[in-house]
Amino acid sequence: MKIIRSKSFTAERAWGALDIASMDGITTRLRWMDQSAVPLACE
């Protein structure tokens, strides 16, 4: 089993991801961004 520390994870590029689990065809990914995510304003 591989232990993944999400706080210290960085990818090679923005929006890079690491597959961390796969069950019944569903994959969970840990994504990394180079800046904070800003929610879109709803009108």
UniProtKB/TrEMBL annotation:
The protein, known as: Uncharacterized protein
Q: Which organism is it from?
A: Ralstonia solanacearum (strain Po82)
